[in-house]
Amino acid sequence: MDDTGALLVVVDAANVVGSVPDGWWRDRRGAAERLRDRLAAEGVPGHAGPVEIVLVVEGAARGVASVPGVRVESAPGSGDDHMVDVVARAGGRRVLVVTADRELRGRVRELGAEVAGPRAVRP
User: Fold this and answer.
1) pLDDT band at 123 (very low <50, low <70, confident <90, very high)
2) Which contiguous run of DSSP H or E holds residue 55?
3) N or C: which end of the chain has fewer CB within 10 A?
4) How many Å is the Cα radius of gyration of the chain?
5) CB-CB neighbours of 97 under 10 Å
């Protein structure tokens, strides 16, 4: 979806997956795929309008495929740096970044993004 009127939701996969101690560390790629599938099925709670979801993965989760409703981007290096780049390229769109990482939250706020913690997309 390239709808510039849609809310762009950028999700820090590692941070969201790591927010619940459910054994994710044994299968980081599988955990990222489960998050992707839940986002594709349920969207972002509290945001009923058009939403474009970008799930940023890194490390062992690189290579997770996109599915309808969720574009997955594999960070070539730092996931945080890649998320900042995604926000910077948003071109004035409304952006919501989902992460609990304080430093990342500050960096994307400087670019005009809103931020929410992992609970915004976790059950």
Assistant:
1) low
2) strand 51-57
3) C
4) 13
5) 27
Cα-Cα-Cα-Cα dihedral sign, residues 15, 16, 19, 21: negative
Per DSSP, what are the bridge partners of residue 47?
A: none
pTM above 0.85, yes or no: yes
Strand partners, 22: none
The number of residues in the chain equals: 123
Q: DSSP character for 111? A: T
End-to-end CA distance of the chain: 25
- Res. 4 pLDDT band, cuts 50 70 90: low
d(Cα 108, Cα 85) in Å, to the nearest integer? 9
**Residue found under tokens 């709808």:** 3
Neighbours of 15 (CB within 10 A): 19
Instruction: Identify whether the C-beta of residue 105 lies closer than 8 Å to the C-beta of residue 16.
Output: no
